[in-house]
Design goal:
The protein contains 18 helices and 10 strands. By secondary structure, the protein is α/β, with parallel strands linked by helices. It has 3 domains: 2-163, Glutamyl-tRNA reductase, N-terminal domain (Beta Polymerase, domain 2, 2-Layer Sandwich); 167-309, NAD(P)-binding Rossmann-like Domain (Rossmann fold, 3-Layer(aba) Sandwich), CATH 3.40.50.720; 342-436, no CATH class. The chain has a 6-stranded parallel β-sheet with strand order 7-6-5-8-9-10, sandwiched between helices. Strands 2-3-1-4 form a 4-stranded antiparallel β-sheet, sandwiched between helices. Helix 5 (96-106) packs across helix 14 (322-341). The chain is elongated and about 90 Å long. The chain starts with a strand and ends in an 8-residue tail after the last helix. Mean pLDDT is 84; it is low at 417-443.
Length: 443
């Protein structure tokens, strides 16, 4: 059973989202603990506006769902009070709803910024991390492969990602709206990852010429500064640089406040800018700017939630591309549904396939040698199984239950008994004539 547990901007404000955000340094221990409670596969997707767990369990039904949710939430937030708060903010999806949500997410249809160009990369990065943690199996591999393909198709085949479509670019536009002109504004970018880089480049496009860049790895800031003719400053001068700035956009991966209210106030007083207008745009999750900074004279603090209103207005131009993006999602969902529905057929045919290949390989090797045997055995068996694969596919398309037949074939031909989820037949070498038997209807 596919399950997704999610906390996102639709159901939780920024302070709630940062409470349940999973820090990068916690990922190793978290992934190790999540495998249990019936959970066979798990992947965590984290973006600036959401934290989501994608899970495959051996069993289905309400009892299995409750067991999995109880296990996952207790690992996610071990403290009882935190766990209760998590459950109140949690959006739980199962089955088809999980697949459609991830496909829409990768395509930019579930983003705070419609068509957000960074989301696909964040989904890809999260999937790569889960693979490195060895918690992804055949079900989630296929789910994420289809989701990433969906995202690429939406970006290349529709206009959903045209114009400003990232948090960084929108933040720069808010700065322009606030000051009217950025030509004489000093702009400080703290964090030169994808979000900070997009913000810096958009500021330059909008007329900013005094751009100061900071990053934990100074080489990245230097590389960006060369293309923008900006200036690089060390992180230990952060509060002084912020005191001289008109606009500060901060998007680091820090788990704590990087810009502290008291230190910022002291720096502004020391340089005589304690009442000067200062726009702070905090694009980080968890937040990097101390919320108390909003009470300082002359300071305006905008976080991810505050940024939402101008984003809504900017996305109107991309709304016309939504139907095209939805059609791509629908098309890819047919592939996903068919692959999930044919799990029993893959299990059944795999046992028969392995038995036949083993027999053919031995007989051909006896006559022609091992090198010829491997290739020839696979070709012979593929042709033999093309018809059974088609029969299984047709039966599933008619809504017939093939589970019993799958079990019998598995018992007859498997070398060792198997339990749990069906094996992933998709990873087995398969010529085109066999693979075509699993082309979903109306694909």
């Amino acid at each position: 059973m596919l399950i997704c547990l999610a906390v996102d901007y639709r159901t939780a404000d920024v302070s709630t989202r940062e409470r349940f955000h999973v820090a990068e340094q916690r990922l190793g221990a978290l992934y190790g603990a999540l495998m249990g409670g019936g959970v066979c596969e798990v992947a965590l997707v984290s973006t600036c506006n959401r934290t989501e767990l994608y899970v495959w369990t051996e069993s289905s039904g309400q009892a299995a769902l409750e067991t999995a949710v109880d296990h996952l939430t207790s690992v996610w937030m071990p403290d009882l009070l935190d766990r209760k708060a998590l459950l109140q903010s949690l959006n739980i999806r199962i089955g088809d709803e999980v697949g459609r949500h991830l496909l829409r997410l990768a395509g930019g249809l579930e983003s705070q910024i419609l068509g957000d160009g960074q989301i696909l990369g964040q989904v890809r990065s999260s999937y790569r991390t889960a693979c490195e943690m060895n918690t992804v199996g055949p079900m989630l591999h296929r789910l994420f492969e289809i989701a990433l393909r969906t995202g690429r198709r939406v970006q290349s085949d529709t206009n959903l990602s045209t114009g400003r479509n990232s948090i960084g670019a929108e933040a720069a536009s808010v700065a322009l709206q606030r000051f009217g002109s950025l030509q004489h504004a000093r702009c400080l970018i703290i964090g030169c990852g994808k979000t900070g880089t997009r913000a810096a480049r958009q500021l330059a496009k909008l007329g900013a010429v005094d751009i100061v860049l900071m990053n934990r790895t100074i080489e990245r800031a230097q590389e960006l500064s060369e293309s923008l003719r900006g200036r690089v400053a060390p992180l230990d001068t952060l509060h002084v640089e912020a005191a001289f700035a008109d606009v500060v956009i901060i998007a680091t991966g820090s788990a704590t406040h990087t810009l502290v209210a008291e230190q910022l106030h002291t720096a502004r007083v020391n340089v005589g800018y304690d009442h000067a207008p200062l726009l702070l745009l905090d694009l980080a999750m968890p937040r990097n700017v101390d919320p108390r900074a909003s009470a300082l004279p002359g300071v305006t603090l905008i976080d991810l939630d505050s940024l939402h209103q101008p984003i809504v207005a900017a996305e109107a131009a991309r709304l016309s591309a939504v139907p095209d993006a939805e059609r791509i999602v629908d098309h890819e969902m047919r592939w996903l549904r068919h692959w999930l529905a044919t799990g029993a057929a893959r299990l059944a045919i795999r046992s028969l396939h392995d038995a036949l290949v083993d027999l053919c390989r031995k007989e051909v090797a006896f006559v022609a040698g091992d090198n010829v045997a491997d290739r020839t055995a696979e070709r012979i068996v593929a042709k033999l199984l093309a018809r059974p694969m088609n029969v299984f596919g047709d039966a599933i398309a008619r809504g017939e239950n093939v589970d019993d037949l799958a079990v019998h074939l598995d018992q007859l031909f498997a070398n060792t008994p198997r339990r749990g989820v069906p094996a992933d037949f998709s990873s087995m070498p398969m010529p085109h004539d066999v693979a075509s038997a699993f082309v979903p209807p109306n694909a």
